Amino acid sequence: MWRVLSTRGFEGLTLRAVAAELGASTGLLTHYFPNKRALLSHALEELDRRSAARPRRLAPVDGTPPPPVGLARLRAALLDVLPLDEATEAGNRIWVSSWDVALADPELAAAHAERYARSRVALTAHVADAQRLGELPADADPAGLAAGAQAFVLGLVVQSLFAPAEFPAERQIALLDAYLAGLVA
Amino acid sequence: MWRVLSTRGFEGLTLRAVAAELGASTGLLTHYFPNKRALLSHALEELDRRSAARPRRLAPVDGTPPPPVGLARLRAALLDVLPLDEATEAGNRIWVSSWDVALADPELAAAHAERYARSRVALTAHVADAQRLGELPADADPAGLAAGAQAFVLGLVVQSLFAPAEFPAERQIALLDAYLAGLVA
Question: Which of A102, B41, B93, B152 could form a Cys-Cys staple with A108, CB 3.0–4.6 A?
Answer without folding.
Answer: A102
